[in-house]
Amino acid sequence: MTAEGERWVRPTIGERLPPPIEPVGPRAWLRQNLFNGWVSSIVTVVLGSVLIMVGFLIAEWAVTDARWGVVTSNFRLFLIGQYPADEAWRVWLALLIASVLTGVSAASTASRATRTLAAGLAAGQALLGLLAASSDLGPLVGLAIALNAIAVWAVFLGALRFPMSRRVRTIAWIVAVPALFVLLQGIGGPLLRLVPTNLWGGLLLTFLLSVGGIVLSFPFGVLLALGRRSNLPVVRVLSTVYIEIVRGVPLVTILFMAAILLPLLLPGGLRIEHVFRALAGITLFSAAYVAENVRGGLQAIPTGQIEAANAIGLNAIQRNLYIVLPQALRSVIPANVGLFISLLKDTTLVAIAGTGLLELLGIGRAVVAQPAWIGAQIEVYVFISVVFFFLCYAMSQASYRLEEEMGVGKR
Amino acid sequence: MTVAAPAQRATSVPPWRDLRVLRIVAQLVALGLVLLAAYVLWTTLAQNMAAARLSVGFEFLRARAGFDIAQSVIPYSPSDSYGHAFLAGLINTLMVGFVGIVLATILGIFVGVARLSSNWLLNRIASGYVEIMRNTPLLVQLIFIYVVLLQLPTVSNSIALPGSIFLNQRGLFMPRPVADTGYWAWLALILLGVVLAIAGSLFSRSRRERGQPMYRLGRLTLLAMLGLPIVGYVFLQPLTFDMPVQERFNFVGGVVLSPPFVALLLGLIIYTAAFIGEVVRGGIQAVRRGQLEAAYAIGLSPAQTLRLIVFPQALRIIVPPLTSQYLNLAKNSSLAIAVGFPDLFSVTRTMANQTGAPVSVIVLVMSTYLAISLFTSLLMNIYNRRVQVLER
Question: Regarding predicted confidence, which is higher, B198 or A163?
Fold first, then answer.
């Protein structure tokens, strides 16, 4: 090679340099993250002082001025509304059953997302028990709810050793949901007195509306999504029109329609409870959104799967049931958790849509009108916001976990 | 093989197994079921409405409304018709929606950028804000803001802000600009500034597209858009101000933003801005790092990189989800009734109770909201197409 003579090799070993100074420790962290240049420093100082000032003001209000008695002396109303106090044990029992089932399922699925949810549930119930103990519900109820929290963990740890099979879990949930409803509503007689749904209120009603809404709207939404992807023009147009109309109007107007129109749509003499009118409105509404989520999942399925199903001679129903839907529905679980969160928040709208129902916010609005607690509005709304925040934040964290897990274990 | 053979086989398939026949039958059955359900529902509805002496039709729109609307952009009095009341509510909704969308976009961009800030404190505050907004119901937030606004001092203890602005329980009182002699000349000057700015940017773009060196017109544009109106304002004196004056029980004169309006607008803005912030953050993060490095490598400044490289590419990703946030804001404005602001839904709820034609009112309000949604998404789709054209 011609470049041979130009090659130069260092004859000696160079002197050893000290290792580069790694910017570690609190001072370096501060410099990098809070005082990185003068703009950043000004932002930090201004924001920091405002934050400290506001935090101090809020803390001072919460500790000295706020009258939290409005929450503790109305705690039963907030939790279960007008549900008779003598029958309240049924609510706590239902809570225990649901918690135990959740704990078992969480441990059996071996998924971090459901564990987050179970941990959130246990922590939430412990907190709830603590609050209940110092409220008008009395220490006994508080203790009972706190025992729920322990039960969740006990069954959770137990089920980690002896996981429940998937089939048993599914059957247990399918049996439990209607059973819990019967337990809460009662069948008459001295043991389970009938508690009409219009007495249900507070957080209990919020849960009934949101869980009921998502469960009932799910099959409807799946059908709509399949309809929208159908190659039959009539079916496709009908589904698309329904979905787009519902997505184009506000939920309040649908709830209002359900409250006024539903009784008029039933043949003479048949009455429909306010709760079921609202539930019907929520179901009609969320079905369109479920459909759009599911459609996303359907579109993500590779064409090869459908071609393979056709190749082995499955018909349209078998293809959807065994090949397409199991994959599509699995992939839209996180999106549907998101939908459930917004549905939970949206149940507050029944308070203003003229349905006459008192869910958590409706109860709050009734409580601030009590003569004994005039002017204690901010306390009530802060409490309601905190309850919603806790519920939604726990679920959204679980949903993030779920998304991560499904991203990793994607088939 | 003959040509006729396949045709022969096709006709031999019995109709109950012929896919073409089945497809038509399935569609007819679906259509028939829907029509049947509609027919059954309609007849029961008609029967029940006749029994309850409720009317169908829209004659009520011409009747006297008789209820008051607390605040309205267009003049309205209780002696006006229901149609007029409906229009007043609609315009209130449109106004809240428009102002809300503009302000929520601006705040949302700030939030999105703050979420990407390298300043830890700013970053944390922005994400805390987003989490709180996303995890509590908008309705609770609206009522909360309204209740807080009502804690403001009474009229006699108003907070006086500089520039004759007063804040109290009854709202925010501000001077109202009134047109004076030079008003039209001033407007013409503003228009001239805008025209000059547009002409400048078109000229600069055409040079860029022809491959000629770009002029840096940014400062000149700014001068035309801001300088002309300011100079004109000083020389023409186009506006005088109607100042709010404190009287015994209330302020007289000026313009007032009532607590319901402020609560609704503020609530919608800070709620939607949290979601828009996430959309903006996602869009900016989706621009590939190589694009940034390439921009710095060819010597663009950070500001130029943001304007010429990052933003146009981020916009393609941002616009579709932004559209759905705009639609959400427009639909969420129907929560106004909770704070007592007379928007479309609030007005129609009163109408449904008074007119005895609830079904017509519901059809009217739902189709109006649907029209607003469709129109908004139409506009955003046009804009989206313009943004997407950038793709090669």
Answer: B198
In chain B, the residue whose alpha carbon lies closest to the alpha carbon of A352 is B338
Tokens at residue A74, please?
């109305």
Closest in A48, A234, A252 to B345, CB measured: A252
Q: In this complex, which of A264, A345, A378 lies closest to B148 when CB atoms are compared?
A: A378
Fold for B82-135+259-388, please state it.
MetI-like fold (1.10.3720)
> What are B91-122's pLDDT values in tens digits?
999 999 999 999 999 999 999 989 988 889 99
Q: Which among A44, A361, A385 has the least Cβ separation from residue B119?
A: A44
Q: Mutating which of A264, A339, A346, A368 best tests the B interface, going by the most B Cβ atoms within 10 A?
A: A264
Enter the DSSP assignment of A161.
Answer: H
Which pTM value belongs to this model? Answer: 0.86
Residue among A232, A352, A377 minimizing CB distance to B338: A352
Residue A329 has pLDDT above 70, yes or no: yes
Distance CA B363, CA B57 (A): 10
| pLDDT tens digits for range B308-355 | 888 888 888 898 899 999 999 999 999 999 998 999 999 998 888 888
Strands (E), chain B: 159-161, 165-168, 171-174, 176-179, 239-242, 245-246, 251-252, 255-257
Burial (CB count <10 Å: 0-12, 13-18, 19+), residue B326: buried
This model of the complex carries an ipTM of: 0.87
User: In angstroms, rounded to a whole number, what is the distance separating the alpha carbons of residues A231 and A241?
Assistant: 15
CATH of domain A196-363: 1.10.3720.10
Dihedral class, residue A313 (left if φ above 0, else alpha if ψ from -120 to 50, else beta): left
Q: Taking CB atoms and an 8 Å limit, are B334 and A250 in contact across chains?
A: yes
- How many angstroms separate the CA of residue A371 from the nearest CA in chain B? 17
Residue ranges per structural domain of chain A: 71-195, 196-363
Going from N- to C-terminal start, the domains of chain B cover 13-51, 82-135+259-388
Please, what sign has the CA dihedral across residues B61, B67, B71, B74? positive
Summarised one tens digit per residue, pLDDT across range A50-100 is: 999 999 999 999 998 888 888 888 988 998 888 888 888 888 888 888 888
Query: Does the beta-carbon distance from B137 to A346 stay under 8 Å?
Result: yes
Q: Return the ∠ at Cα A374 (arms to B70 and A206), rounded to 5°.
A: 80
Q: Minimal Cα distance from A354: which residue of B?
A: B349
Residue A194, min C-alpha distance to chain B (Å): 30
Nearest residue on chain B to A392, alpha-carbon basis: B135
Judged by CB atoms closer than 8 Å, whether chains meet at A232 and B30 is answered as yes
Question: Is residue B389's pLDDT more than 70?
Answer: no
What does the pLDDT read at residue A288? 95
pLDDT of residue A100: 85
Taking an 8 Å cut-off on Cβ atoms, the answer to whether B120 and A33 are in contact is: yes
Specify whether the CB–CB gap between A351 and A343 falls below 8 A. no
pLDDT tens for each residue of A2-52: 455 677 888 888 888 888 777 778 888 888 788 878 888 898 999 999 999
Which among A51, A251, A256 is the top mutation candidate for probing chain B, defined by the most B β-carbons within 10 Å of its own β-carbon? A256
CA dist., res. A369 & res. B3, Å (int): 85
Interface check for A377 against chain B (CB to CB < 8 A): the answer is yes
